[in-house]
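Per reviewer request, we include the raw input and output of the structure prediction for the construct analysed in the revised manuscript.
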Amino acid sequence: MTSRIEIQDLDFVIEGKQVLHRLSLSLSERRIGVVGRNGSGKSTLARLVAGLTAPTAGKIRINGHDLAKDRRRALQEVGILFQNPEHQIIFPTVGEEIAFGLEQQGYGKAEAASATASVLERFNLGHWKQTYVNTLSQGQKHLVCLMSVVAMAPRLLVLDEPFAGLDIPTKAQLNRYLRLYQGSLLHITHDPSDLAGYEHLIWLDQGRVQLAGPQAEVMSVYQEAMHIQGKADDLAHLSG
């Protein structure tokens, strides 16, 4: 189950600052990575793809749909995981959190409860249903967000630095779950190891596509450029 992402002459401006400049991409790979330095527009692109905000100019279509104009369709087409799970989780228990998204899609309470139990069992976490989210570790909260999105079965899952700040074992466990995901992934990350096995890579720089293509080719050029910049930069001039 792959998704089609069509971006044409996309601009995004906020508070007078142009964050993205004339982006044009046509993507249909199942595993797509996005890399770039802080301030390059990666998170803005994630929100645009998910339909959480509309472009200032240009067009973006996910499987033929303008998700910023059709929020119900957006719930079917795209799920998103943010860097901080606290920005996503709104209910006290794991079961309630998972069921909420399903109810937003139109499930009745009984149907949502059944689907929630099914997802928890798929992750071998049936005993988590009544668990209070505030008792969980950061990595476990990320897993709750992932299960909530998986339950809604979107065709595309957008990952906006969801592993930042997690230790190596926790990242490995979450990556293992992601490998089981049947839809498409658009993964924004600073860590090249997160993109092992990905087919396509987009390198954003100052709001523009610096390079896009097969992961291995783009990654080697990107890493070389980052090493060169790391030697030349003064920390006082690094973008925030």
